[in-house]
Amino acid sequence: MTEKQNSSFSEETLSIWRDTVHLPTFNPLKEDHTTDVLVVGAGITGITAAYMLAKRGVSVTLIDANKLTSGTTGYTTAKISAQHGLIYDHLIRSLGEENAALYYQANKEGLHWIGSHIKENGLHCDFEIQPSLIYATNDQEAKAVEKEKKAYDRLGILSSLKDSAALPFKVKNALIMPGQAQFHPLMYLHELIAELVKMNVAIFEETLAETIEETEKERRVKTKQGFTINCRDVLICSHFPFYDHRFYFARMFAERSYLLACETDRALPDGMYLSAGNPKRSIRGLHLNQKNYLLIGGENHKTGRGESMEHHYEQLASFAKQQFGQTKIVAHWSAQDFTTLDQVPYIGRIAKNSPHILVAAGFHKWGMTTGTLAAQLLTDLVLGRENPYEALFSPSRFEATPMLASFLAENLQVAGQLIKGKLSRPAPLNEHLQNDQAVIAELHGERVGAYRNGKGELTVVDTTCPHLGCEVNWNQGEKSWDCPCHGSRFKANGEVIDGPAKDALTLFFSEAGHEKRAENKE
Fold first, then answer.
1. Strands 473-475 and 480-482, sheet pairing
2. Which of 26, 129, 179, 444 has the fewest C-beta atoms lying within 10 Å of its C-beta?
3. At what angle do helices 88-95 and 97-121 cross, to 10 degrees?
């Protein structure tokens, strides 16, 4: 890893996890296939669920549209914690004490499963028990932290409230949840993947599931490449449910967040930290390859609605320098996460009349713990075993108090973004676009997105998202077109990166030699 200057924040980079672990690769599916259970999505949820099922003798197949762990799992902060920000006071008020207690217990069990599995199998993945802390820097935040402490006490969550923390800046107070953990997620998953191979689990990368045909006896999953996977059960553990007959795009919202890995000579602070207020700041240490790193994260915003990506990284770099002194930035990366309307993930049967199609989505940035508990819950449902958390996480639930207000507020924002995009009048496209830059412009009466890569090759796409017609915005840091309405993301040439969109942006023109696709707008 080499030092990054602020001016290079527009360059693409791997996360520190993906830069230090090389996972095995697998071929795409090249023929029709039959299995008992198909797991779609090879992040921590899908890999763990495949492992749990295979250990019980179930025939399992695991597929991913890209490479294993190439989604949020490979770009996480890698905290394993049941302390999910200021969540428990909110859950008590919106869902009641019983459900709030179940949420805590479920996440506690996810943490316990990871720790036990690592210990029992002697895994080497930099696993460390650490306290998790929410800290306040002003009086308003301190009051919110005090309310969260009262919620902990009502739920019987072991914790302490202190007026200091092991940070180089003053805090008003900090709420401490002991016994949480952090690790290197890809070292951990590398071991699980090796076990899957030993158990003869079929694994296919670059295999995109597009739709499901249901019959009384089986599910037939159709891939983009034209093959069919016949199975009894389908576990949808992809970033966004590809089989969206329950309007998940309107029941979740997408956010992007940013991370810096900073090499430091200082002793690392004990604990994993998250600010109570905004802008969010996440802090944790990492000792890797005999070097100390600080992982500084935050700058959350709705996908497609933030400032320039460089600005968000620069804000984190400024915070790191101001609070921790001179640090050497060796990696920077971002991630996308979905949050549900009531902040509780959707885990379970996708619908009552589709008992063999299960889904796990909306982890609200806490996918290490929640993804593991999701794997446990999905495994129990496949095996026909009772699980005490089934009702809490059911995708079919509807809690009117927290959900209806969130639904209306979020979809009013979506409507605003839709109107804003349609009313904007871009300037005509001209030939002076610089290398590695993009612009939204007008060409022959059409609103287009133009990107000129580092070689000077121009690519022009239609900026209308094919999902529901919103206008996408350019993300310079990741060279992608991002939809501000429902979080769909597209490559510079229009190909889909993240759903809910299934179809690519219309490609008008490309000088890039690797382009194969050509479309004409009807």
1. antiparallel
2. 444
3. 130
Distance of CA 350 to the CA centre of its chain: 20
Please, which residues have CB within 8 angstroms of residue 162's CB and are 6 or more apart in sequence?
Answer: 173, 174, 176
Q: In 3-state terms, the chain is what percent helix, strand and coil (to 5)? A: 30, 30, 40
Ramachandran angles phi, psi of 267, nearest 5°: -65, 140
Give the integer Cα–Cα distance in Å for 236 and 46. 8
Taking only the tens of pLDDT, the chain with its 522 residues reads 544 544 466 565 679 999 999 999 999 999 999 999 999 999 999 999 999 999 999 999 999 998 999 888 988 999 999 999 999 999 999 999 999 999 999 999 999 999 999 999 999 999 999 999 999 999 999 999 999 999 999 999 999 999 999 999 999 999 999 999 999 999 999 999 999 999 999 999 999 999 999 988 999 999 989 999 999 999 999 877 777 666 565 677 778 888 999 998 888 889 999 999 999 999 999 999 889 999 999 987 766 555 567 888 899 999 999 999 877 899 999 887 888 888 899 999 998 888 999 999 999 889 999 999 999 999 999 999 999 999 999 998 864 445 555 444 544 454 444 444 444 556 566 666 778 777 778 776 677 888 888 787 888 888 888 877 788 888 876 778 888 776 788 888 888 877 777 788 888 777 775 444 444 333
- Dig out the tokens for 431 from the structure: 């030939």
Q: Are 338 and 252 in contact (CB under 8 A)?
A: yes
Strands 473-475 and 33-34: unpaired
